[in-house]
């Protein structure tokens, strides 16, 4: 029926070319827009609805910018590593990609950023980084930080619980893909998001750039070469400043409009924006215009050792800051007979990179590629609190600097027998 209506539509606009991808989208948009207009008329005029009205809350194409601009506010949804179903929907087997959003230039929430329409409220009423993704701990800092930078209006994490079972402490159940109620890591993430987004620990960027939408852009959609998705070169601007969309007729004070579908469009951007994008391309790092959010794209800390000679392994770098006050406190504690407990392997690498042969640390900032493995003995750290790490990983080698093989194996045997949670933000072990 839809195809027949489409053929009739082509006749009304006197179009008879073989390339019809964009025209079909234009046709569907026209139908949808008429439907929304009628629904909004009914809700407002007949039942006198006073609530704000929205729609299209699960798509990221610029082809919807025109329709979204007519809604009261824009809402969208996005998950990281949502399960897919190769056989039957919501039935096993489930497929997960197990990728890091940071390694993909913060793809989530970056791909949501252009869908906001400047001048209208913007909310995300469903989002989550799903279990069992190894990198789901990236969620609070990446999503909360960038939502604040973009000055979005509301975030709603899905979901607290799909049933009462999750609220019964005497019932121990495995983690689900979405539920927060029995997921300690996710509950901690909620608090971090609140601090960054609600408390205002990250300020909104003043700089703002809008994708200028024109109706003829819909007809230009051609498939793989132009699928109707916002260009990545544009969405990456959201790692620097605020981005969104505006129609060609609309304007918002302080918002610059550009056409990212045209060659050379970046020339119109502020010099600071182009400098930030250049650094991202060349160094894999980009700082926001506020200076409060910095994204470092790299291999992460779980890269396994794959060489026969451990000493020849190329270690990844991690950025660090050791403030003067912290360095003084550490040195004073050890001078008075106290002990230093490092929470996490990054803390160990930082302190061991900033200390002399006697374990005295000095305030520094920068990046470290230090690779710690036996028989090295830490000089600035006395105890290590850390997760149960992957076999053959550099992290497990670092742990072995604090305890011999037998002690490490004993800890792992105990953890397995006690059904502890392994890997990122699971249960912990303490070594000295």
Structure description:
This protein is an alpha/beta fold. The protein has three domains: 1-51; 52-289, no CATH class; 310-431, QueA-like. It has helices at residues 2-12, 21-46, 65-68, 107-110, 139-150, 184-198, 216-219, 232-235, 271-283, 324-335, 345-353, 394-399, 405-417; strands at 74-80, 122-129, 154-157, 208-213, 242-247, 256-258, 285-287, 294-296, 318-322, 341-343, 364-368, 383-387, 428-431. The strands form five sheets. The chain has a three-stranded parallel sheet with strand order 1-2-3, with no helix packed on it. Helix 5 runs parallel beside helix 6. The chain is elongated, with a radius of gyration of 26 Å. The N and C termini lie far apart (72 Å).
State mean pLDDT (0 to 100 scale).
Answer: 89
Ranges where pLDDT stays below 50 over 5 or more residues in a row are 299-305
The main pleated sheet reads as: 3 strands, parallel
Class by SSE composition: alpha/beta
**What percentage of the residues does DSSP assign to strands (E)?**
5-15%
Which strand order do you get reading across the main beta sheet?
Answer: 1-2-3
SSE string, helix = H, strand = E?
A: HHHEHEHEHEHHEEHEEEHEHEEHHE
Number of domains: 3
Fraction of helical residues: 25-40%
Number of strands: 13
Number of helices: 13
Question: Termini distance?
Answer: 72 Å
Provide the gyration radius in Å.
26 Å
Label the overall shape. elongated
GO molecular function, one term: S-adenosylmethionine:tRNA ribosyltransferase-isomerase activity
Organism: bioreactor metagenome
Keywords: Cytoplasm, Glycosyltransferase, Isomerase, Queuosine biosynthesis, S-adenosyl-L-methionine, Transferase
Pfam family, one: Queuosine_synth
